[in-house]
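chain below, 142 aa
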Amino acid sequence: MSQGFKLVQRSSKPGEKDAAKKYYAVAKSNGTSGLKHLCKMIAARSTVSSADVKAVLDNLNFVMDMELQEGRIVQLGEFGNFRLSVSSDGVENEKAFDNSLLRKPKIIFTPGKELRETKATTDFTKIVPEVVTVECDRPHAV
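prediction:
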């Protein structure tokens, strides 16, 4: 199976009214995999129940939150690392800086080796919308 994409037309220079429009590729998802489904899939590959997997993931989320707030990088082995990132508006000198200049922090995920390989080995397929005819005899995209 491959990752689908579609083409969308956007301004080549956002914010400029008269900028030329170009077509850009945008990933098109093929549905979602919720936590319940993932827990069942993990349980099927191991000796623990789906409920046990969910309990561990719930606790992982809780502990990761605590560790990130303490300023730690959370390393999850081959899965990857999570860390907080912060930025701010610039000031002329250190005395002019105060915490109100801080922007909302972001959580940065750095994937491990296998997930990085996924990026390199994923195939892409262009998704073309189907055209159907309805009662008005005009084509409509689905």
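The longest helix spans residues 50-69. Helices lie at 35-44, 50-69, 113-121.
thats it, cya
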